[in-house]
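As the work plan foresaw, the team has encoded backbone shapes as discrete tokens. One protein thus recorded appears below exactly as we store it.

:::
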Amino acid sequence: MSTPSQQYQNQTPYGQPQQPQRPQPGGLGRMLKSAVVVIAVFGAVGYWVWDYNTNPNGGKAKEEAEVASHNPTIGDCVKVQDPQGSPVPTVVDCASPEAEYKMGDLVVAGQRCGSEYDYGIKVTRRGLGHTMCFTKL
């Protein structure tokens, strides 16, 4: 068993200043490594965003082209995937052997395509509907 004087022998008495702690070795090196990692991550994300928005063969341009290819306008030729189920029109060149139909009219929801049309696809987006009317090529 220890005596009370032995118990408090290694403690600093109140009121006496303590020596300042030395900085840990390698502290500056660790900060630099962390900064390099953070800059690299931000640089990579920035490059990806820039490339996504400016690359003409991918990213945003590719998505916009994909959306446009499924939104034919009057006069466009299309091929239709799954015509009996969930039809998806894809715009193709009219001289292409893939061309099946030519879009002739766009009527609002509730109206039917005229008798001069061979095929219609009903489309509903954001609560608004319309029907694309096509003639067979």
In short: The radius of gyration is 36 Å. Residues 27-54 form the longest helix (28 residues). The chain has two domains: 26-69, 72-136. The longest strand covers residues 128-136.
